[in-house]
Amino acid sequence: MKTQHKPNKQQYAYQVIRSRILDGRYPPGHKLVIDQLARELQTSAIPVREAIRLLEADSLISFKPYSGAIVTPFDEQAYLETLSVLAVLEGFATAESSTHFPHEKLEDLRAYTRLMEDALDELDFSLFSNYNKEFHKLTYQYCTNQFLMEQIHSTWERLGTVRKQGTTMKPSRMKRSIAEHYQLIEMLEKREDPKTIETFTRNHKLNTLKAFLEEKPQK
């Protein structure tokens, strides 16, 4: 019988703080008070301080003069650059996956899309974003280029460090995104030309970027 190893105090603090940043409970700019976190996590200040240093290395936390540790503010330029790269990578991976995408998995794609519709109805943008990510992970799951898959994973990780709380999409774009998901499902079902699928998937991602730029306040 294998022994389950519990994370040490530093690892536990790191996991808790990281999850709260990524799910939006600690939004960009949120100040982290070490003593308060230590009391909450029932540990000393040292593991919390070490965890914060690790999160700083992950670019999730920054140090601001006179404020101390804060959740890294939204980096618009990094977001635009990262999403642009993700559009290219996911487009190619989805095209590669499409040639042998199992038809029995199409219903899973429809299920994720319906869950996105439900999340939009409830205005749960964080949940919408999570289902959107799972949808796309499934579309390129059958890509056999492992290096490409690793690059997509690392790009998603980077996107997680620069995004706003929840999703950067507005409800109008989210509704169009759902419609595009149904179009992509139909293309996979019909086994359309991989180049056509690559272009569609890339533009689907870039449409989100375009909508973000169009909807941001003009200076």
Question: Characteristics of this structure?
Answer:
67% helix, 2 domains, single chain, Four Helix Bundle (Hemerythrin (Met), subunit A), mainly alpha, 219 residues
Structural notes for this entry:
There is one protein chain. The protein is mostly helical. It has helices at residues 9-22, 34-40, 45-57, 76-98, 106-121, 125-139, 146-162, 171-189, 194-215; strands spanning 61-64, 68-71. The chain has two domains: 9-71, Winged helix-like DNA-binding domain superfamily/Winged helix DNA-binding domain (Arc Repressor Mutant, subunit A, Orthogonal Bundle); 76-215, Up-down Bundle (Four Helix Bundle (Hemerythrin (Met), subunit A)), CATH 1.20.120.530. It has a two-stranded antiparallel ribbon. A hairpin with a 3-residue loop joins strand 1 and strand 2 (68-71). Helix 8 runs antiparallel to helix 9 (194-215).
What's the CATH class of the largest domain, please? Mainly Alpha
| Rg over alpha carbons | 20 Å
Spell out the CATH superfamily of the largest domain: GntR ligand-binding domain-like
Determine the fraction of residues in helical runs and give it as a percent range: 55-70%
Residue stretches low in confidence (pLDDT < 50, at least 5 long) are none
The share of residues in extended strands comes to: under 5%
Q: Please tell me the overall pLDDT.
A: 88
In whole angstroms, how far apart are the ends?
63 Å
- How many runs of DSSP E, i.e. beta strands? 2
Structural class of the helices, strands and pairings? mainly alpha
**Number of domains as seen in the coordinates:** 2
Question: Which CATH architecture of the largest domain?
Answer: Up-down Bundle
Number of helices: 9
* Largest sheet entry: 2 strands, antiparallel
The 3D shape can be described as: elongated
> What's the CATH topology label of the largest domain?
Four Helix Bundle (Hemerythrin (Met), subunit A)
What order do the strands of the largest sheet run in, or round the barrel if closed? 1-2
Order of helices and strands: HHHEEHHHHHH
